[in-house]
Amino acid sequence: MTHEESGRNEFGQELRRLREQAGLTQVQLAARLGYHHSYVSKIESGAREPRIAFADKADDLLAAGGSLLAVATRIRARLCAGLVASAGEASVPLPRAPHGADQLRPSLTRYVRLPAFGVTCPSHGINGCAAPVPGGLAEVPGVDGLTVGAETLHGFAALLTTYLDADISEVAGDLAVPVERALRTLTTLVPMARGVHANGLLQLAARYADLAGWLRVKRGQHGIAMTWLHRGVEWALASGGVATACEALSSMGVLAMIEGDAATALDYSAAASAVDPSRLWTGVHAQLIQARAHAMLGDHREFSRLSRAAQRAVDQFDGRDRIEAPWLIGAAGATYIASHLAGGLRDLAEVTGRSVIADRAVMHAETSLANVPARMHGSRLMLTLRLADSHACRGDLDAAVELARPVMAAVTSAPATPIRHELSRLRTRLGSRFAELLDSMGLCRL
C-alpha cells in the first residue's frame, strides 16, 4: 500500500467514525456539506483523496478540531508534489525560530495595495485589495485564535510585504526572528480557520516558509533552510499556491548552486518550471538557474540557448506574470537577468579558460551593478564582488583589487552567505593579491 492510499484510508476511517458518532448517514452528511453522497462514499472507502475544502467543511460540521484538515493537507501535499514521505512525517517538528529580539521597526505605511512584492491576497488574488498594515505580529487580527477570518488573511499578507521590503533593503537586525515567529503562529491558526480562510492561511504559510528558508540560506544554515523550503513546497501545493511552490523550488536550485551541485540545481529548477507551465515567469526563472548550472558544468551551448530563451520570454509576460514576479520586470528585471548572465559567464570562463567569455561576464556584471537600487545594499556588495571576480577571471587582477578595495570592510563583516560565497571565489582567484588587499585596508586575514 502506498503512502497516498494509507493516507486516504486514514482520512476515510476517521470521517466514518465521526459521521457515525454524529448519527448521520452518508446521504445526510453529503447534503449538509453540499456534496453528492457518492463522493462521501468514495472518500470513506479510500477510493478518492479528500479535497481541502471538503475536509475543512467536514472538520467544522463534525467538530473534529482540525484533525481531518491536517490529514487531508498531508495527503494533498504528497499527491501534488509527488513526494514519497515516511510514515513518521507528521511527527517531524518545524524548525525553532532563532534566538533574538524582533528589531524590525513598525511600518509607517497604513495601507498596502495588494498585490505587492509578488504577494497576492488569498481572498482577492490578482484582482487586488487594500489591506491595513499591522505594526507587528500582535496586531494581526485573529492571532488570538478567536476570530480567524478574512481580516486575518489581510493582516498576514500585509505583514509579509513589510518583511519582504525589509529583506530587500537589508535593514538592521535578524529578520529571520520575526518572520519565523509569524510563520509558527500561522501554522497554529490554520486548523482554527474555516472554508476558504483555512486554505488561504496555508497559502500564506507556504509563502512565509519560502522567505524563512531564504533567510536561513543567507545565515549559512542550509539544513534548516531546506526544511523550510520543503515545507513551503508542500503547503503551497496542498493549498493551490503554485507560484510559491515554484519560488521555493527555485530557491532550492540556487542553494544547490551555492553548494557547487549543478546537477541537483538542474533537477530543482526543472521541477519548478513543471509545476505550472502556463506561468511564463516560472519558466524564465527556471531557465536562468538552469543556464547557470550548465555554465558550472562547462556547457556553453546550453547556457546560451537557455539565456536567450529566458530573455525572449520576458517580453511575452502577461498581467499575472508581472504581478507574481515583479523582480523580472523593467529595470529590476534587466538587473536581475544581467546578474545571472554575469555569474554564468564568469563560471564558463573559469571552466573553459576563454578570456573572451570573461569579457562578456564583465560587461553584464557592470550592467547589473549600475542599475541595482542603492537601497539594496547587500545586492550591491555581492555584485561588486562578482564584477571584481570577473575582472580577475580574465586576468586583470589590478582592476579586481581596485573594485574590491572600497567594499572590503563591509563584505568581510557581512553575514549573508551569497556575499561570503562571492568573496571566497574572489579570494581564490586573487591568491596572494587578496592578502595584500586585506593588509592595505588594515583588515585581519580571513
Automatic annotation (TrEMBL):
Q: Name one GO molecular function term.
A: DNA binding
Read off the CDD domains from this record. Answer: HTH_XRE (cd00093)
Q: Where do the HTH cro/C1-type domain residues begin and end?
A: 15-57
Q: Which PROSITE patterns match?
A: HTH_CROC1
- Source organism, top-level taxon: Bacteria
Q: What is this protein called?
A: Helix-turn-helix transcriptional regulator
- Give the species this sequence originates from: Lentzea alba
